[in-house]
Amino acid sequence: MSEQETPEPGSGDETSTGAAAETAKQIADLQDAWRRTAAELDNFRKQCARDIIRARAQERASVASRWLPVLDNLERALDHASSDPGQIVEGVRAVHQQALAVLADLGYPRRDDETGKPFDPARHEAVSTVADADLVPGTVARVTRPGYGSDGEILRPASVIVATRSE
Question: What percentage of the chain exceeds 90 in pLDDT?
Answer without folding.
Answer: 61
